[in-house]
Amino acid sequence: MPRRSILSANERESLLAIPTAGDELIRLYTFSEVDLALIRQHRGAQNRLGFAVQLCYMRYPGILLGVDAEPSAHLLNMVANELKVPREAWNDYGHQRAETRREHLLELQAAYEFQSFTTLSHYRAAVHSLGELALQIDKGIVLASVLAESLRSKGVLLPTVDVIERICAEAITRANKCIYAALSDQLTRAHRQRLDELLLHKEGSKTTKLAWLRLSPKKPNSRHMLEHIERLKSWQALDLPASVEHVVHQNRLLKIAREGGQMRAFDLAKFEPQRRYATLVALAIEGMATVIDEIIDLHDRIIGKLFNAAKNKHQQQFQASGKAINDKVCLYSRIGLALIEAKKTGADPFAAIESVLPWEDFAESVSEAQVLAQPESFDFLHRMGDGYATLRRYAPEFLNVLKLRAAPAAKDVLEAIEALRLMNSSNAKQVPADAPSKFITPRWARLVKTSNGFDRRFYELCALSELKNKLRSGDVWVQGSRQFKNFNEYLVPVEKFTTMQLADELPLAVPTDCDQYLHERLTLLESQLAKANLMALANELPDAIITTATGLKITPLDAVVPDEAQALIDQSAALLPHIKITELLMEVDGWTGFTNHFTHLKSGDVAKDKTLLMTTLLADGINLGLSKMAESCPGTTYTKLAWLQAWHIRDETYNAALANLVNTQFRQPFADHWGDGTTSSSDGQNFRVGSKAQSTGHVNPKYGSEPGRTFYTHISDQYAPFSTKVVNVGVRDSTYVLDGLLYHESDLRIEEHYTDTAGFTDHVFGLMPFVGFRFAPRIRDLGETKLFIPKGDTVYDGLKPMISGERLKIKQIRAHWDEILRLATSIKQGTVTASLMLRKLGSYPRQNGLAVALRELGRIERTLFILDWLQSVELRRRVNAGLNKGEARNALARAVFFNRLGEIRDRSFEQQRYRASGLNLVTAAIVLWNTVYLERATATLRNHGQEVDTLLLQYLSPLGWEHINLTGDYVWRSSAKIGAGKFRPLRPMPGA
């Protein structure tokens, strides 16, 4: 029987823990009249209290309270209050004879039909009950929690945690065998031979074929595109059985692929055959999907580079001709004046021209003007032809290797792609006269359609450009891709959604009846419009005025910190002890044990050497990298750090460790001065990419001309950075706002969220209420952001400058209501990420019904928000304060991420994610450490007789780093001896 540990110490403790929150205690332990009648049959306060407590433990967590065990203080207080007996009566019950307690247990089991988990049949049934779930996930705490809940629902008392762990481990082992069989049993001898060849060295190379296949692409150019296409062809040549990727759950498939990806070919070759082939199949499925997505991304970026190059050439040409154009304009201005004067006086117009310059010179100037003149459209597309050779080098292979499918909206583009494939296969130089042309937009038509038929260059350029757009929007998808699948495949299956809808089980925070929802929102909208209109007419909007002449004017908020608060900030900062970053991480780990979450990918064990693990984490956090960290940290080597990173550090372990720190911050009493953990903000921070990573970066004019990456981070009102994500600088921040709110693992319950202008779109506004958040962005140029009102005769003169001439399309919302519900349900359940859906819905040129309907919902919510903003200075202050915290956190992050000139130099996207996660983890540790010591600093001030106004504590911030040494050798040895539960001494008070 499996003996490996699948539960951490914290998980074992939490599995049978008694809740401490008041509402949970009430829900679980409130007695019914039947319960109270049975309890009252026992004589004496101690017997009634003891009997009731035993009942509570048998119900939840579903165990017998041991003879020598003390009940939870929270539970004991609640039960004593409920029964109106003193809690001290428990002490008398605990000293009763053992027979009394045993009699009570037997009575409870008989009265409530509780069963003991004692037989082999119970054990086998428990293992069997977890079989389906274990095929989907192998996370021990999830399986154990489901098992415990299942036993409770059946009235079966839980066995010991050791037994629960053995049951879960056996269920996982059985599931693994089933998964290995499902992935390998369909393979023929030829399949197995081709898979085994992946572990051999590639001809003429020192690396294995598998390692070569898993390499990421380099720069976005035709040569590297062709190299990556060769990789995809090699994956496809495996010719795995059809639909083999669907025979096991995607979570388990990804886990097997990750494990296999961390192993050397030598280690994989030693696996027993069934497991070896299953692992190689998982690697092949994931590898193929990754390569397909990377090829499409390369194509997207190459097209983008060609567009940018064409635009730049166009601008340079125009600028170079600027003087000549200006001279011609001046000349023709003089000629025009002469002609006007000639008409007034009746003089000869030709003589008027010749009075300015000789006729021959005039004729020559017209010829020169024709050369200088731009096309009527003044477009740069004609310059795209200069880059045709780049596309042509890889386009035939690119189109042949991808298995494209299309929705009806993109059928014409797919037909054009088929025409190009035929031309490529037959080496045709000309585009057939009957080639598909419906996909050609008016902008391209002037170049593609000529008097002699289609221009081959521009026909192909147009088709490949439109293919890029359709892939982005989801109208075209690719078989085998992850990021470019059929739109519907991302969503909850229609049958499951319909069942949930009929059972009223949709996990949404709004009424799911369309009429009810629209009635509530439109009634509120009309009420708010009327109220704001009256206030605007009476000039009673607080610190705001709306006029026809100037539009909206809002008085800026006063952001000055009171002098008393500044003095407290300075005094508290002066008391914080100087500390090295290594010492800080050790101390925080001593409080929280966050390093325990970095478990081994395969065994689930915690890292044996915590200092080595923290060295690896710090290498990410301060952007030093493993090689340089090994040189800066005595006693370690690159090999040790690389092994730890490979097996213990990944996205889920980073997320769990971060949640630990955020939860600890959330429970710090001192953090309540900054907020209650129900509001948050998010912002993107740009980092340049350099060296080998330069080819992975994107350029955004907002950040300059150098390529970069954005770390998009969410921070709570208590300064805890609870989510971070690496994103493309060219994608709008709003795409990722919901991801951080929905998919973090902390105990925060965010209700209201703030962003700057880049963080909002109407689609985000529309989705926010459905998934349970109030959205409050700080919108730049708010006066230019229009209010949308329903159709009707109501006139709002006071708001007229801000009201859009376009009315809300309520019919569109009604027509696509079920699609909106299905989309929101899929996002809330995590079937698909919000960012992926928002990116597709917002992509040009998709204007389908769902996108328009969601936009109309967003316009309702945005209008309601703006009306609230106009009427509430408190809302403006709240949003401003929240965003200021995020900006201050960015300053701390910039200071921590100082190595390599603050540049990201890792080419692998996985390594870039680790950099962002490491940075966020280190900043979260600094925030927590500062919070703890700021509380001690203010207590010290009070102890020295200084009065500290509690209202001023909100101005303190745990984001300072002047007292933290971030540089030098990274030695894991504390300069101060700190006992368990103790703290390092503060710096002395000035003058003390």
Automatic annotation (TrEMBL):
Residues of the Tn3 transposase DDE domain: 583-970
Gene Ontology MF: a single term: transposase activity
Keywords annotated in UniProt: DNA recombination, DNA-binding, Plasmid, Transposition
Pfam family, one: DDE_Tnp_Tn3
Coiled-coil positions: none
GO BP terms, alphabetized: DNA transposition
DUF4158 domain location: 6-171
Superkingdom classification of source: Bacteria
Xref: NCBIfam families: transpos_Tn3
Recorded family membership: Belongs to the transposase 7 family.
Protein name: Transposase
Gene source species: Sulfuriferula nivalis
